[in-house]
Amino acid sequence: MLDLAHRLAKPLGPWFLKHQRDLAWRRTRDPYSIWVSEIMLQQTRVDTVEAYYGKFLERFPDVGTLAAADESEVLAAWSGLGYYRRARLLHAGARHVAAQHGGAVPGDAETLRKIPGVGRYTAGAITSIAFDRPAALVDGNVARVLSRIQAISEPKLQDAGAAGHWTLAQKIVEAGSPRVLAQALMELGATVCTPVAPKCGECPVRSECQAHAKGLQASIPAPKQRGLSPREDLWAVAVRRGGRILLERRASEGLLAGMWCLPLIERKQERAGASPKAIAAATGVKVKAIEALAEPVKHVFTHRVWMLWPCRSEAVPSDMVNAAGDSGQVDGRLWIAPGERPRVGIPKVTEKLLAALGY
DNA sequence: CAGTCGTGGAT
DNA sequence: TATCCAAGACT
């Protein structure tokens, strides 16, 4: 009797070759391109990544180009995609590969694992998918698929860090083409063995699934609960000077680290907009004519919610020295013209605010 | 190791 | 509307 890994691998391969989605990163075997796709896909939906992947590779077609680029260019290409640390780590990773490996992406998981931004999963994915060499990989999809197949009810044993999943995943990719089987496991989780309402009728390994046999597919894996997101109310200030708007680069650590945003100021009891005093304290610019918008911009993060109250203000004439020519990036500040988007990291929340303010 | 880190789609 | 959570890595 074949063991479980072989019984799963046998139907998974043909199923994947027939039912796989046509995705841009499946049309290449270039390890760098696959690496980029894996980083973009971390915690991010396929539909979202598709809008960025091609453009990114056009701009940074190989390790050397990415390694030689300025970080701001990389963040500009990543703008709107979220989890911006990934972009920084990918950039650092390209420099690492350029310096340590002559620009050639390593073909084994152990060496890949040393690249900034490449964790256990991504190392396995690049090895299996790009090099077609067996290396275990367990992401959220694989963890869910393997948890259901084995009807694992213990939450600690269900998640992607569970040792049992890694052992089984290794055996599965060793039972045939790692390139095919690695993607087959994830594709099954993404399209059939979905978190909600799995399509067990379409599953090629239904006969091996203990959760299905016991009718437990809806309760495995167990839903994990999160704490409530704290809500923060902030003024989002458009400081206008010489027809331009002030953007500030956020702190190098924390939320939206190093990304460019409107100045944000804690909103307390005031209703008519941030006070000139608070704006001056936050930006160093004296302002007048503050005008608050009626509706806030709501921006939801994983662990908090921002209620952003946009308001416009005008720098006072005494502060208009050099206003005409001051369009460059100086000391974490940037004065942009309406519609202008400099090649720096600009998160979605900034775009939402600029749109609300009509800039 | 539990918390942090974006955004958007589905229910 | 509220909640979940998606091809995780890092601290």
CATH topology term of the largest domain: Endonuclease III, domain 1
What structural class do the secondary elements suggest?
alpha+beta
Helix and strand string, N-terminal first?
HHHHHHHHHHHHHEEEEHEEEEEH
Strand content: 5-15%
Tally of strands: 9
Let me know the largest β-sheet.
9 strands, mixed
Helix content: 40-55%
CATH level-1 class of the largest domain:
Mainly Alpha
Question: What would you call the quaternary organization?
Answer: single chain
CATH architecture of the largest domain: Orthogonal Bundle
Radius of gyration: 25 Å
Q: Roughly how many Å apart are the termini?
A: 67 Å
Describe this entry's structure for a reader.
The protein is of the alpha+beta class and 359 residues long. The chain has 2 domains: 4-214, Endonuclease III, domain 1 (Orthogonal Bundle); 231-357, Nucleoside Triphosphate Pyrophosphohydrolase, CATH 3.90.79.10. It contains 15 helices and 9 strands. Strands 1, 2, 3, 4, 5, 6, 7, 8 and 9 form a 9-stranded mixed beta sheet that branches. A hairpin with a 4-residue loop joins strand 6 (297-300) and strand 7. Helix 1 (4-19) packs across helix 12 (178-191) and helix 8 (120-131) crosses helix 12. The longest helix has 17 residues, at 85-101. It is elongated and about 85 Å long. The termini are far apart. The mean pLDDT is 94. It binds a DNA duplex (11 and 11 nucleotides) through residues 37-49, 80-86, 89, 116-122, 125, 137, 139-142, 160, 183, 186, 189-190, 195-197, 223-226, 254-257, 299-303, 347-349.
Task: Note the main attributes of this structure.
hydrolase, 359 residues, alpha+beta, DNA-binding, 42% helix, 2 domains, 15 helices, Endonuclease III, domain 1, EC 3.2.2.31, iron, Nucleoside Triphosphate Pyrophosphohydrolase
